Amino acid sequence: MSNRVRMILVVAGTLALCAAWFFFFIRPRQAELAKVRADTVEEENKTVALRTELDRLEELQANAPALEAELAATRRLIPSDNEVANYIFLVEEAANQADIDFVNVTPELPKPPPEGAPLAEIRTVIGAEGGYFEIQDFFRRLHDLDRAVRVDLVALAPAADAAAAATAADPAAADKLHLDVTARIFFEPPEGASTAAAVPAPATTTP
């Protein structure tokens, strides 16, 4: 065998040995290294997510007193009982403070709100009569009641006796307006209780 052939065989054997070493030892290690890198990235992402959640919880803990105060204020505006009588009293008091001539409140039976909140609502119709500025003051006081009230409809028209007063040359009476407000109040019914049985039949109050 010539030296040239021997050299070719040695080179070919060396290349075959290197190829075998690569496929049986190096390549599996590369796959393992790639998996380790992927696992490392996944764990780093989990660490970032946990750190973000921890920061959020720490922020909630720092804001806990303010959140508890806000929750207490909300529970005061949305009581655990319907307190319809107290609501009517608040409306009457607002009417008296606004110097309204006449006010009446007609509540309906409670039912779940259409928005789907876990509360019970009572729709009420408030009728009032008075001058323009008195009506405006009364409506502002309704907004400031110590009770969560959602106004759905407002109608304003001349009072029924305004035309007669105008012919009688009574400017003050001629300026009277009639206000109709459809509003809803809310409360938290007892757990497991039916909202329809949470309050008695509706009543009308006219001071």
What characteristics describe this protein?
single chain, 207 residues, Alpha-Beta Plaits, rod-shaped
Write the SSE topology:
Layout: H1 3-62, H2 64-77, H3 84-97, E1 102-107, E2 120-130, H4 132-143, E3 149-158, H5 162-167, H6 171-174, E4 177-187
Antiparallel strand pairs: 1-2, 2-4, 3-4
Can you describe this structure?
By secondary structure, this protein is an alpha+beta fold. The chain has 2 domains: 1-62; 78-197, 2-Layer Sandwich (Alpha-Beta Plaits). Helix content is 53%, strand content 18%. It is built from 6 helices and 4 strands; from the N terminus they run αααββαβααβ. A 4-stranded antiparallel β-sheet has the order 1-2-4-3. The chain starts with a helix and ends in a 20-residue tail after the last strand.
CATH superfamily of the largest domain: Ribosomal protein S6/Translation elongation factor EF1B
Termini separation comes to 128 Å
Note the main sheet: 4 strands, antiparallel
Count every beta strand, where a strand is a DSSP E run of 2 or more residues: 4
| Chain-averaged pLDDT | 77
H/E topology pattern: HHHEEHEHHE
Could you name the ranges where pLDDT drops below 50 across 5 or more consecutive residues? 195-207
Shape: rod-shaped
Strand order of the largest sheet: 1-2-4-3
> What structural class is derived from the secondary structure elements?
alpha+beta
- Bin the helical content: 40-55%
CATH architecture verdict of the largest domain: 2-Layer Sandwich
